[in-house]
């Protein structure tokens, strides 16, 4: 085998990445720091001066801070349950993974159909006689309801992706460790926290990073449920690029999302660091 | 899409060939571009003209380029121009004086706009579209004492909404404040001009503060779900709102589906007048027209009542003159027509035009007004502080575009000032 072969095989993918990812990415970086051809921080000040910027940052961070831990716990539980099953394992796996097959906009619309004024929730409450006329849940006066609805939709939609990764991770852990712990009299909980979780760290890392990146890019679900009432970073990026036609500020927003993503990925990598010698 | 493009190309090509062969009067237009409207203009509107006309629509870019080229060359083949007010502002010097044409039947506010800030009649108003108010008939019984539906004031509108709210226990006013709603047009063309006589210059004046306070009072009686409303015809039909504001095209379904249930009426008036935002198209004659006499005759023909009605059928733009519409018009046209002519012909009519000269900054200009609304009304921030803050944003957009003032603001030399 010629020594160049691996590189040759990697070349098409690398070229693709260079042309369609790194090059446009570089353009966006430049775009965020220039205005009319001159270097400036104007795009960033214009972004931070806008009254919705602070709200957008905090809403995005809060969404991530609430959604991701809930999903982590749920995904761990679901993965453990699936792992323990003798029969019907793949059937359950498929059922859990159904929301994965739905686009995020469609997921947002499904939850909109539940929460809107003429939606399912109102019909159910009405048919039970709890309310006498349809309530407005997703109004501007109750942003927290919109926030809650977005959390629900996000949890429903994206927990499965973490679960799938964790199921794969659980499958990689050799049975002997658990059996040895059992022999020494460790309880179920002890085995989970002392054996399974540490061994699962690489998969947890992947799942968390993937999910946090997705959380910072949350967009379609928020737009479907809250319109512009609940500003998030990705929504503002879209707004500045297409509604306000200011690519510089849109690029600045993209930089903020990138910065947050990198920072949080580094934190996760650091927290779940696996020493080289301890890798399975 | 592709076939549509091909057809347009073919049509343009054939139109170019036909004009180069015959010595017709060429009507070079940015309006009636869709192929159906173009055909209707040729076959139903212009066929009745006593002379040969060739109607050729084009996008704003090519329209401007060809006109400028002919003006620069000092001779040309364009006989008459059809375009929006904003299209004419950049070529004002190339338009001949049409003061000789009788415009007594046209709403005076529009005639004034046709002068483009000069002493001569640069273009003759041709057709218009606009935003109006509509109400369910059952709302009419709550009209405040002595109020005339065809000449409401903002105070009366607020009182009306309050009456309905009190009597039915529900806020019944509806406003298109959803993401796709045209709320910014209401603030730009209706609310602010009615109180300040201005769209830009007096943005943060005391009168503007009054305007926003008046809107806050109206908002008390507005369906809070309005922040999700975009096409008010839906809420009218569903009964979620009884009195609404929107573009005529976004109200049409309500009138066409239940013609007996709804009425259309003019926008209310404030202390400075009855602000409204017409999308106004006009016809002009360039100084290089090969046959100015024939072109002027064509302009006169377009102003005739029958032609105006034929134009309405062809383009869905309303007449600029006051006339009775025939009975076979769609219900939406029947309903909106009188409201529009009452609004544009009112003594206190104050036309406020679509922004001119902003180019790609139009979105940011609109955002200033939407942000002001969201901050004052939805976020409950103090009116004075928000106006001062948003005035800065407005000034930045106007300065960046270097856009001079447009009606109703007085003409300016440089970028339109924000006081």
Structure description:
The complex is a heterodimer of chains A (280) and B (419). Chain A has helices spanning 5-33, 42-49, 53-84, 89-97, 104-115, 120-127, 143-172, 175-183, 188-199, 201-216, 220-226, 233-243, 247-271, and strands spanning 34-35, 38-39. Chain A is mainly α and 280 residues long. Chain A folds into 2 domains: 1-39, no CATH class; 53-272, MetI-like fold (Orthogonal Bundle), CATH 1.10.3720. Chain A has a two-stranded antiparallel ribbon with strand order 1-2. Chain A is globular. Chain A starts with a helix and ends in a 9-residue tail after the last helix. Helix content of chain B is 44%, strand content 12%. Chain B is built from 15 helices and 11 strands. Chain B has helices at residues 2-21, 35-45, 60-73, 85-89, 108-113, 154-168, 183-196, 206-219, 232-238, 252-257, 292-303, 305-315, 331-344, 362-378, 383-401, and strands at 25-29, 53-57, 78-84, 124-129, 131-136, 173-174, 243-247, 262-265, 274-276, 279-284, 349-351. In chain B, α2 (35-45) links the parallel β1 (25-29) and β2 (53-57). The radius of gyration of chain B is 22 Å and the shape is globular. Chain B starts with a helix and ends in an 18-residue tail after the last helix. Classes of the chains: A mainly alpha (280), B alpha/beta (419). The A-B interface holds A 51-52, 116-117, 136, 138-141, 223, 227-229, 243-246 and B 178-179, 224-225, 227-228, 240, 360-361, 363-364, 367, 371, 374-375, 378, 389.
